[in-house]
Structure formats: structure tokens, C-alpha cells
Amino acid sequence: MKHLLSVDDLTADAATAILDDAERLEQALLGREVRKLPTLRGRTVMTVFFEDSTRTRVSFEVAGKWMSADVINVGAKGSSASKGESLRDTVRTLHAAGADCLVVRHPASGAAHRIAAWGGASGPSVVNAGDGTHEHPTQALLDALTLRQRLGSLAGRRVVVVGDVLHSRVARSNAHLLATLGAEVVLVAPPTLLPIGVEQWPVSVAHHLDGELPGADAVMMLRVQAERMRGGFFPSAREYSISYGLSARRQALLGEDVPVLHPGPMVRGMEIASAVADSAQSAVLAQVRNGVHVRMAVLYQLLAGAEGVS
Amino acid sequence: MLPAPEAVGPPGGADGTATERELLGAADVTRTVARIAHELIEKTALDARPVAGADSPRVLLMGIPTRGTTLAARLADAVAEFSGVRPGLGSLDTTLYRDDLRRRPPRALESTSVPDGGVDDALVVLVDDVLFSGRTVRAALDALRDLGRPRAVQLAVLVDRGHRELPIRADYVGKNVPTARTEDVAVLLTEHDGRDAVVLRPAVLLPGTGRPGSGS
């Protein structure tokens, strides 16, 4: 595997291999005196973030460092992109400066694909760490790992994904990956927050949250992406909260061991009640921990492989 | 030390085209594991009466996946049976520490588990099926160093096939098998392969490396 741009790049076997490796890596690091593996020594990973992020960037940085790669963070602010340099020139510069892998977050959908295509066969590996409203494959992998740990297996499980599907690359990647892994995905959102073409996704769609919760094996809340919204998609935060927020009342409709996921950052009180976010059912911090191990597994698969041997 | 490989006839193949020679059968494997267990008890003084002023050592068997882990479990059973003391049992995946990671396609990771109490001040016996170049053992020593500081490290292998590339030797050897580089020694265990045996076969060379694809 040279790049990870989309969950469509992953077969069920390839995705399962990444999840298995992530668990092995967690196990290998457990209770150690030195939390560092020499696996990627001498490799250079650059995180190129043209959009703000805490957990994804930190997670990739920690993952790279725990595997002994040299990790360099490049932000749009403070890089020549703010002087008007084109994305292509920025990327060529980073490759010439020695990047073996670029972890790219960009507000434009498809940016990671373009960067991978510009590099060609000799270019750096590219990991899509979120492009516009398109994809966020490592988030989908860490969610799948969290669900697998909580549910045992994903096959036949019913996962309810709630909220701003329209602007959510997390929802898109998750819907496809979970379907690949055999889960049944139900999207619950107001009609205004569903993308055109959602009927071609491997999911079913509902608009009323209360009706979907009792049969759910897991609930995945999404962030309302106010920064991407141009215009009114719902009347008010309060109304959104009443219709689609995961309140304590709604939590009671769920089975006791049904995990609740949120990719973060959470808007407490609107998307999810504080009491739910901090309850034992919440898998939010497990998601963050799994994120590091999943990204270690992805870097391992992309960078540890043979040069010239496929 | 065994002086030379025993002559073993081709198994079955009356036409003489057999490509596989059996070096140890199921009973030999069982006997060999038992002998290593006895040597281990003697050398680690597992069942020795307490010596004045000295603690008896905490012995951990760490298998190198996959067949080393299985052998370590069998060895632990044998040691427990013969000495009445059960050594700690763990497994140590060396993949992340290998020096040939860039030369091969990425390998799936195997499990690593450390017994309660960790490796600090323990006598750690690494257990593997075949000792070959010594690179796996080097990787295991590096992995072990990151886990803590054992009092001492020993190495037990079912087969030593020679061709060392590093200054490494085993403390316990089930059988020395002089081999050619064009051959491959396969340890078969019931848990993985349906039967216990050690067989010699023509090696499958890894493309582009000119090196055998298995054995370490």
C-alpha cells in the first residue's frame, strides 16, 4: 500500500489487517519502560495541516514518534502557503526536503488525491487526514476499532450515525468502511443535512432519532460543522438539540452496553449532553487512544514495507 | 553437540523424487522438548534448594511467534512437570525490531505479552523454533531491552541450522542440523500444522533478495 486516501482503497481484509496491527501495537507498548519502537527509524513523516486540528495532528505526531520516525509539523499559518505559494509547490518543496510520508489535512475535497497524483511513483506516501467534506479514513478505522473492541465484531451490527452528515467526512468514511466490514449503517439527520447522492451509499436513512435508538448496537454522534455552513440548515441550535441531540432521556432508550461515539470536538449540550459524554457508555477517550494505535499501524503499513519489493 | 546430520531416507517417495526429508518425527520432538526442559532446570537451578543468601531466580520463557510461542508453552509444561515450578510464560514479537523491514513487504504483527511482574531482574529464556542467521534473536534482544532489564537472557531453540550472521549462540539446542542455504528447515507443530515434525525442504527464495524466505 503506497497511500491511504480513501476507505474505498481498503478491502475488508486490508482494513481488518490494520485493525489487528493496531491492537498488536497497543499490546506491544503495554506496560513498557520505553514507549518507543525502532521500526520507522530514519523515516520522515510531515503532517501538513491547512485546517485546524488537535486530535488528528497530535495523534499522527505521537504515532510517528512512538515508531521513531522524524515527525515535522507544517501548518498553513507560518508556512509559505500564507504568502500565496501553490499547494503543488508546497508539496514539492516538502518532498525535496526529505518527506517519506505526507499526512495531509486540507479544506478542499480531493486535495490528498491530487497530492498523491503529483508525486507519482517516486513521490512520498500520502495519508488523507481529512479533505473538505470528503473523507477521513483513519478516523473511520479508529471508530471501527473502537466498535470492534466494544461489540466483539462488526458483522451484522446496527450502527446509528447521527447529525450533520452533509458536511461530515467522518460520516462518509465511516458509512463505507462499516459497510465493508459487514455492519448495517443507519444515518439519522434532518433532510437539509444529507448530501445529494446519499441513496447510493450502502446505508439506510431516517429522520427521527427516537425511533432508531432502541434497535441500535452503537451510536455515533457527529459534529455540527458550523464553519462549513453557508446559510441556515436548521432553525436554531436549540431545535437541533431537541431533534438530534443525544440527551440523557435518549440515552435511556439505548441498551446499557451500547457504546456512544463522537469524533470530537464535542459541542456539549447541543450534540451530546454532558452527562452522556462523561458516562460509562461514552467511548470518546477510547477513540482517541485507538487513534494513535491505528495511525501507527497505517504508518507501519505505508512505510515499513520493502523499497522496490511489493 | 551432534557431529553430523543423520542420514535420513526420503519419506515414502518410492520414485525417489521426494523433496522433503523428515529430520525429527513426532516422538523425537516430544523427547527433545523434554530434554531441553531438563537442561533448563539444571542450568537455571529452578528446583535447587535455596542457597544461603541467594534468591532463587524468577524464570520467564518468552516465545518468539508463532512456533516459538507454542514451543515455549510446551517447554513450560514440561518444566512444571519435572521440577514442580512453573516458569512465567510470555511472547515477544520481533517484527517491529527487524533490520530488514525495508527489504520485505510489511508483515502482519504477532502478539507480544509479558507475564505479570515484567522482565526486570528475571532470567529470561528466549524460545524459537529455528536458529539461523541470528537476526531474529538480535531483534528479540532489542525488544527485550525496551521492556526492562532482565538479570540474564538465554536462548533455547529446537533446531540450530547454522549460517550465523551475528555472534549469537543458543544455550539449549534440540538438534544441530547442518544445512545448505538452498535448503529450508521447517518445524511443524500440531497446533499450527496438524503434526509434529522437523523437515528439510528446498528453500523458497524471496524475490530480489536471493535469501531464503523463512527460517531465521
UniProtKB/TrEMBL annotation, chain A:
Record bears the keyword Cytoplasm: no
Sequence ranges assigned to domain Aspartate/ornithine carbamoyltransferase carbamoyl-P binding in this UniProt record: 2-149
Keywords associated with the record: Pyrimidine biosynthesis, Transferase
Residue stretches in coiled coil: none
Top-level lineage group: Bacteria
InterPro entries in alphabetical order: Asp/Orn_carbamoyltranf_P-bd, Asp/Orn_carbamoylTrfase, Asp/Orn_carbamoylTrfase_sf, Asp_carbamoyltransf, Asp_carbamoyltransf_Asp/Orn-bd
Aspartate/ornithine carbamoyltransferase Asp/Orn-binding domain mapped to chain residues: 156-301
Reactions performed catalytically: carbamoyl phosphate + L-aspartate = N-carbamoyl-L-aspartate + phosphate + H(+)
Binding site for carbamoyl phosphate: R55, T56, R105, H136, Q139, G264, P265
Listed pathway(s): Pyrimidine metabolism; UMP biosynthesis via de novo pathway; (S)-dihydroorotate from bicarbonate: step 2/3
Gene Ontology molecular-function annotations: aspartate carbamoyltransferase activity
Pfam hit, one: OTCace_N
EC numbers on record: 2.1.3.2
Positions bound to L-aspartate: K83, R169, R223
NCBIfam families: asp_carb_tr, PRK00856.1
Subunit organization: Heterododecamer (2C3:3R2) of six catalytic PyrB chains organized as two trimers (C3), and six regulatory PyrI chains organized as three dimers (R2).
General function of this protein: Catalyzes the condensation of carbamoyl phosphate and aspartate to form carbamoyl aspartate and inorganic phosphate, the committed step in the de novo pyrimidine nucleotide biosynthesis pathway.
Protein family per UniProt: Belongs to the aspartate/ornithine carbamoyltransferase superfamily. ATCase family.
Protein name, as recorded: Aspartate carbamoyltransferase
Species name: Rhodococcus antarcticus
Gene: pyrB
From TrEMBL, chain B:
Ranges spanned by the short sequence motif PRPP-binding, renumbered to the chain: 124-136
Enzyme class, spelled out: transferase
Pfam families hit by this protein: Pribosyltran
A GO term, aspect molecular function: uracil phosphoribosyltransferase activity
EC number(s) recorded for this UniProt protein: 2.4.2.9
Keywords: Glycosyltransferase, Transcription, Transcription regulation, Transferase
Reactions the enzyme catalyzes: UMP + diphosphate = 5-phospho-alpha-D-ribose 1-diphosphate + uracil
The Phosphoribosyltransferase domain, residue ranges: 33-176
Keyword Transcription regulation: yes
Family statement: Belongs to the purine/pyrimidine phosphoribosyltransferase family. PyrR subfamily.
Role summary: Regulates the transcription of the pyrimidine nucleotide (pyr) operon in response to exogenous pyrimidines. Also displays a weak uracil phosphoribosyltransferase activity which is not physiologically significant.
PANTHER family reported in the protein's UniProt record: BIFUNCTIONAL PROTEIN PYRR
The name this protein goes by in its record: Bifunctional protein PyrR
Protein's gene: pyrR
